[in-house]
Amino acid sequence: MNDHDRAEHPGLRPIDDSALTRESWKIFQIMAEFVEGFERLAHIKPSVSVFGSARFPPGHPHYELAEKTARQLSDAGFAVVSGGGPGIMEAANKGAYSGRSPSIGLNIQLPHEQHANPYQDIGLGFRHFFSRKVMFVKYASAYVVLPGGFGTLDELAEILTLVQTGKTRRIPVVLVGSEFWSGLLKWFEDTLVTEGTIDEEDLQLYSLVDSPEDVVDVIFEYYEARSFEPSAEEKKRLMEL
């Protein structure tokens, strides 16, 4: 926009060229996060992304459930990917770290709450939530979602939306803890379906279980008649995430 345009639109502020330059250079930082993530995670297959609150300490029942679940997934041959921080993320990495398969943390820089836990065979650092979220989806054979807050709900809504809209392949989405999740799932059924904001068939996009054994069983039952490796069509979708 030139000076004449600005004169005709006095409410517009002048462009800060230094700020624009900083924004442009951010593109390279974002590219670097994607490149490192693709290079380090592409060969970690099959993997399961595990989510849950950062606020549950060791000894809490949800922490213990996450650790046991991750250990069973790891021993069953799945690399376990978490957000890399404390709470259920730490429990998931700890369980996987003591198992047969790799423990992976996708760490995010936050003003509070987040610090990398020590139970990671592979740890990646991210500044941007959106590049980190792509890594959770791109190589996952399943999502396991334990009790959590807004961040956990964000990841749950993200994968359900991507699957619902066909932007990613269908994978098992396993919610763990019926007492915790039943109220939300009832709201899905009684309100979202009733109001027509989702279809009744969308309620089949997830499973609800209570034990580590059931988590593993749900995932293996899903892949009983299909490969963990994405099909050619599914790979094309994943390239367009």
How much helix is in the residues?
40-55%
- Please state the average pLDDT score: 90
Structural class: alpha/beta
Termini separation comes to 33 Å
What CATH first level would be assigned? Alpha Beta
Q: Estimate what percentage of residues fall within beta strands.
A: 5-15%
Give the helix tally. Answer: 9
Strand order of the largest sheet: 4-3-2-1-5-6-7
The biggest sheet, with number of strands, parallel, antiparallel or mixed sense and barrel status, is: 7 strands, parallel
Strand segment tally: 7
Radius of gyration: 20 Å
For the record, the CATH architecture stands as 3-Layer(aba) Sandwich
| Tertiary shape | globular
CATH topology: Rossmann fold
How many structural domains are formed by the residues? Answer: 1
What layout of secondary structure does this protein have?
Elements: H1 3-8, H2 17-41, E1 47-51, H3 61-75, E2 79-82, H4 88-97, E3 103-108, E4 122-126, H5 129-138, E5 140-145, H6 150-164, E6 173-176, H7 178-195, E7 207-209, H8 212-222, H9 232-239
Parallel strand pairs: 1-2, 1-5, 2-3, 3-4, 5-6, 6-7
Helix pairs in contact: 3-4, 3-8
Task: Give an overview of the whole structure.
This protein is of the alpha/beta class. The chain has a single domain (27-239), classed as Rossmann fold (3-Layer(aba) Sandwich). 49% of the residues lie in helices and 14% in strands. The chain has nine helices and seven strands. Strands 4-3-2-1-5-6-7 form a seven-stranded parallel β-sheet, with helices on both faces. Helix 6 (150-164) links the parallel strand 5 and strand 6 (173-176). The chain is globular and about 55 Å long. The mean pLDDT is 90.
